[in-house]
Structures are given as structure tokens and as C-alpha cells.
Automatic annotation (TrEMBL):
This is Protein YjdM. Residues 3-32 form the Protein YjdM N-terminal domain. InterPro entries: YjdM (IPR004624), YjdM_C (IPR013988), YjdM_N (IPR013987). Residues 45-112 form the Protein YjdM C-terminal domain. It comes from Pseudidiomarina atlantica.
Amino acid sequence: MSQLPACPKCESPYTYEDGAMLVCPECAHEWSLNEPADAAAKVYRDANGNELQDGDTVTVIKDLKVKGSSLVVKVGTKVKNIRLTDEGDHDIDCKIDGIGPMKLKTEFVKKA
């Protein structure tokens, strides 16, 4: 039986395999064996340089046009429960009241 690596987030030795991913039962962190170690350590910062985490509430600092629509996300709009992603050039997945699901860049938000 092969020895699985400890969790890179909390150093728990109780990791297990779930398909192609490894999972930590203590902190619920998921990662791939092929994932580089520095990818898990990526730090997301808002326009003011504050570190962002999953579940944070942020405020939009600039009017943002919604692509393919006539809607505009106004300055001061609060966005609750953000999810940070590493897909494409947008870093935040969120749901904005009155508009729906969106992707935002961290450079256009500040931590609330």
C-alpha cells in the first residue's frame, strides 16, 4: 500500500484518495498529486492589497458593464460569499442580487 502525502494546507496525515483527487478529512482541502505545490499557495488580493478568502464579502469599486447585456454593476454593490477560482483571467465566482451569477476580477473589488 502506498503512502499518501500529508495535507499541504493543515499538514494532516489522514488524507485519502477520491478518484483523481486527494482529500483532507480535517480541513476539506482537495488537491491533485499532479498539482504544483505553489498553485495551492496562490494568494488573491483586492484593489487595496488585502488578502481575499472564499466566503468573503467584497464591494465593487467601479461601474462594471455586464457583457452581452445592458445591465451595469454599480459602484458600492456588495457581493457576499465569493468563491475564488484559478480559471481564465477572472478570479472571483459570485452571485450578484438582481443580476445573477458572474465572474469578477480582484482588481475591481475591495474587501468589505
